[in-house]
Amino acid sequence: MRTFGSGLAVLVAIVAMVVALPALWTHERIVDRQGFVAFVEPMAHDRQIQDLIADELTRQITDQTSAPEILVAPATQRYTRSDLFPPDFADVLGQQHDFLFTEPTTDAERSNVLELDLTDMVNRVVQRFGLPSSIRVDGPIRIPLGESQRSGLEAGRYAHTGDQVTRTGWLALAVAIVAALLALVIARRRGVTLAMLGVGAVISGAVSWGATGILRDRALDEFSGTDSSPRQVARIILDRAGDDLQHTALITGGVGIAVIAVGVLSSLVLERRR
Q: What pLDDT, in 10s, does the model give residues 90-114?
């Protein structure tokens, strides 16, 4: 009976680990605003992102003023390579996060589609990076990232889903911890049980690794339809997020292998003492 109970608790713990890993990663990196901003801000140092944003800023400034590209392009490049760019980049993406993860309260908000607001960046380039004072940009600079609400990028798109993911992740973690402890307490052979829990961690890592490609492709589909610079930036961010989840999955799998080794070693030691 104890063996059956321990095995059942191990099975519950494994299922809970499989659910908890991607859910908690999503909470820490995507759903939580501070975690998301901290995750994306270092990407502002990526030369490809710097060049894409600089190209878009150049395009917006030259479209709305009489300034020649040969004058504007060096200024936008100096800006994206300056220390001012990373916090501005994080702030813009934080606004997008608020748009997608905050429930809209008015009909006007519900009808909006996700946009990249470059107004502050454009003004900073114009005012601080050597452009003639005669160059002025009036009005907001917003680049839509969805063709319509059907794109899946409408206001509050992930508000409910984000809350569900967060609750599910923490609940699954609690279940995994309780079930694992229960399995170890009632097990006749704790070394074997510990090794099985390690196998569960490996399985959790493997499932998260395998799911990364599917989740990334699904997210990229929502940015399909154009090759504009902002959407290319979004694709880079999603690729980095996928890489980070796979890295987390590898670490989890490595921890699982270490637990398996400890469990097997403990079991062998106990067997020799009997």
A: 998 998 898 888 887 766 556 666 7
Q: Is the pLDDT of residue 225 over 70?
A: no
Question: Is there a contact between 111 and 149 (Cβ–Cβ < 8 Å)?
Answer: yes
Q: Sign of the CA dihedral 195, 199, 204, 209?
A: positive
| Chain centroid, CA 14 distance in Å | 24
What Cα–Cα distance (Å) separates residue 231 from each residue in 77, 86, 130, 254? 19, 18, 28, 35
Q: How far apart are CA 93 and CA 229, in angstroms?
A: 14
Q: Which amino acid is at 191?
A: G
- The residue type of 146 is G
34 pLDDT band, cuts 50/70/90, is: very high
Angle formed at CA 204 by CA 186 and CA 42, multiple of 5 degrees: 130
What residues have CB less than 8 Å from 41, skipping those under 6 apart? 86, 87, 89, 90
Q: Kindly report the pTM of this predicted structure.
A: 0.85
List the helix and strand counts (H, then E) for the chain. 10, 2
Residue 13's alpha-carbon distances to 75, 183, 187, 257, in angstroms, are 56, 9, 14, 16
pLDDT in tens, 169-203: 999 999 999 999 999 898 888 888 999 999 999 99
Q: How far is CA 7 from CA 10, 20, 176, in A?
A: 5, 20, 13
How far, in Å, CA of 241 to CA of 229, rounded?
18
In order, the DSSP letters of 172-228 are HHHHHHHHHHHHHHH-S-HHHHHHHHHHHHHHHHHHHHHHHHHHHHHHHHTTTT---
Buried b (16+ CB within 10 A) or exposed e, 78-96: bbbeeebbbebbbebbbeb
